[in-house]
Amino acid sequence: MLIPSSWLGTAADKYDLVLKGGRVIDPSARLDAIRDVAISNGRIAAIGASVAGTSINTVDAHGKLVVPGLIDIHTHAGRSAESAGLLLKDGVTGWIDAGTQGADHISDIVAIARSSLQQGRVLINIGRAGLLSDGDTMDLARADVSAARDAIAKNREYIVGVKARLSRDVAGQNDYEVLRRAQEVAKSFNLPVMIHMGQTISPLPKLLALLKRGDIVTHMFAPPPNSIVDDSGHILPEVLAARARGIWFDVGNGVTGHMRWDTVEMIMKQGFLPDTISTDWNVNSPTTGVIDLPNCMSKLLNYGMSVSQAVACATINASRTFAVFKNRGTLKVGAPADIALLDLREGKFEYVDNFNNKITGSQRFFPAGSVLEGKWFPRA
Ligand SMILES: [Zn+2]
């Protein structure tokens, strides 16, 4: 039976949890209104201005935003067993480790993903030794197609894509060939490739030509050389064409070389908004300019993005990038009850880019609690 999302329930209904009176923002349903959200058996059971019935637990959400659980598609959560719990406190109910490890040590990351409270999945680095301070694929032999294929074949459930880091200090002259090999691996399993763009040796259009529908470009705000804008600040026609053929553009906030406010402004002014907002998070992020995903979402509010657009980037849009997040990123009745409670505060908030430039904004999202498959996790 199809239950309309306006279903209010009856006095006889019994729920496990009700979030009462919050401002529910669910871009998947174009909803932005004060609502109660009722949960039963780990799923959204009813949403309405006032849900009738009784509930075992109630959370007072007055004054808070109630949004679908946040999905962070570019993290390095796989580095630590603590990551999952820390991310859940930030409202993150699904994460992707984007290329921390390659074939040689992929089982370390897969083990972390497997033990994660929330859905955690892995992109395998095409460089078989994973992240290296002297460059993952500076030695082209490390971009080992058969080693990556073997690793994926052994971990089909947890490896959901291939990561190719292409900056000059990571891949050097090999950027194009590294990406070609990443696609060769991905093609065997029908998986997406995520590229780490910015400061490459090859021009970006040459690299974009190798991308297919469903692939992801992370670090989209990277400043020149080889950013998504030309010398006069216009979005490259090849970038617009890439978006038109179904390639996603992701923020990948990070700390080194990925984000500079002048480049962000130039891109946002032209209406080229990100599809997804991600952090490039690791356990040290709370002490850097990243802090958490809600903070990274807040930054774009200073460049013309609405609250609802920022929420969409970390919920419904993010859920579309990897099949594992199908049915997530939404509060539709029947969906798994993954929810982030956020506090949208007004004031003066400082945001720092990757070059220590600071801006002051008037709004910031703070995490205030999470629901994972119907279970309430307070922030404190
Ligand atoms: Zn990263």
Give a description of the structure.
This protein has about 375 residues and is an alpha/beta fold. It has helices at about 85-90, 105-115, 145-155, 175-190, 205-210, 235-245, 260-270, 295-300, 305-315, 315-320, and strands at about 15-25, 30-40, 45-50, 55-60, 65-70, 70-75, 90-100, 120-125, 160-165, 195, 215-220, 250, 340-350, 360-370, 375-380. Strands 1, 2, 3, 4, 5, 13, 14 and 15 form an eight-stranded mixed sheet that branches. It has a seven-stranded parallel sheet with strand order 6-7-8-9-10-11-12. Mean pLDDT is about 95; it is low at about 1-5. Bound molecules: zinc ion (ZN). The site of zinc ion has 4 residues, from loops.
Summarize the entry for a quick read.
This protein is of the alpha/beta class. 22% of the residues lie in helices and 29% in strands.
Helices and strands in order:
Blueprint: E1 14-26, E2 31-40, E3 43-48, E4 54-60, E5 65-68, E6 70-75, H1 83-89, E7 92-98, H2 106-115, E8 119-125, H3 145-154, E9 159-165, H4 175-189, E10 193-196, H5 204-208, E11 216-218, H6 237-244, E12 248-249, H7 261-269, H8 293-300, H9 307-313, H10 316-319, E13 339-352, E14 358-372, E15 375-378
Parallel strand pairs: 1-4, 1-5, 6-7, 7-8, 8-9, 9-10, 10-11, 11-12
Antiparallel strand pairs: 1-2, 2-3, 5-13, 13-14, 14-15
Helix pairs in contact: 3-4
Bound molecules: zinc ion (ZN).
